[in-house]
Amino acid sequence: MTAPAGSTGPHAANDPRLLGRAIRRIAYDEATIARRVHALGEEITVAYPDGDLLVLGLLKGSFVFLADLVRQVRRPLHVDFLVASSYGDATVSSGQVRMVYDPETKLEGKHILLVEDIVDSGRTLQRLVALLGERKPRSLEICALLHKHIATELHHPVRFVGFDAPNEFLVGYGLDHAENFRHVPYVASLQ
Ligand code: IMP
Ligand code: MG
């Protein structure tokens, strides 16, 4: 029996989702991600006291992670999204952070859990935490699937972290390069 393409390291070489692009290695495979997301869901479940919990996903990168994560949280919650500007086609930060879509939901008095795919420079989150903090949430925490631990611009702790990531350009499980590879079910490092 052959394993499905892309599910584990050796098969990624033939994965048709990768546009023929060579990847350096699979950083986190599907099973590893699923186990960690399950544990994160449990951490979040026990961390929150009573009160409204709003899980705010930062689009587009968090969409896969958020969908899996909220199904592992065993308490009532609401979901909304916001959009900030991204890197465009570059693999390095351009320094531009713009709010493109602002959540409709009222934040005041609620526990806000901001869900992000990856913390790199921390610039995006630093800006968003400042903006959202002005709306008087009861609490404001960050959950990131990946954290490169090179953020010099973020002065707010990342309370929930999936994985301490290598300082490489990672794609898959929501993360893109020029909008490609978001649907790849594992996280890979580009060459
Ligand atoms: P920061 O503002 O530098 O922390 O960058 C945050 C955003 O940049 C993330 O939400 C991603 O969309 C993007 N990004 C940073 N590093 C990577 C990467 O390794 N792969 C894909 N996207 C990345
Ligand atoms: Mg991106």
Question: How is the topology of this model organized?
Answer:
Blueprint (H helix, E strand, L loop, with lengths): L22 E6 L1 H18 L5 E7 L3 H8 L7 E7 L14 E3 L9 E9 L3 H11 L5 E9 L12 E5 L5 E2 L15 E4 L1
Parallel strand pairs: 2-3, 2-5, 5-6, 6-7
Antiparallel strand pairs: 1-9, 3-4, 8-9
This protein binds inosinic acid (IMP) and magnesium ion (MG).
Q: Can you characterise this structure?
A:
- The protein has helices at residues 30-47, 63-70, 123-133, and strands at residues 23-28, 53-59, 78-84, 99-101, 111-119, 139-147, 160-164, 170-171, 187-190.
- The chain is of the alpha/beta class and 191 residues long.
- Helix 1 crosses helix 2 (63-70).
- The protein is globular and about 50 Å long.
- Bound molecules: inosinic acid and magnesium ion.
- Inosinic acid (IMP) binds next to strand 5, helix 3 and strand 8.
- Magnesium ion binds at residues 61, 86-87, 176.
Task: Provide keyphrases for this structure.
binds magnesium ion; alpha/beta; 3 helices; 191 residues; 19% helix; 27% strand; 9 strands; three-stranded antiparallel β-sheet
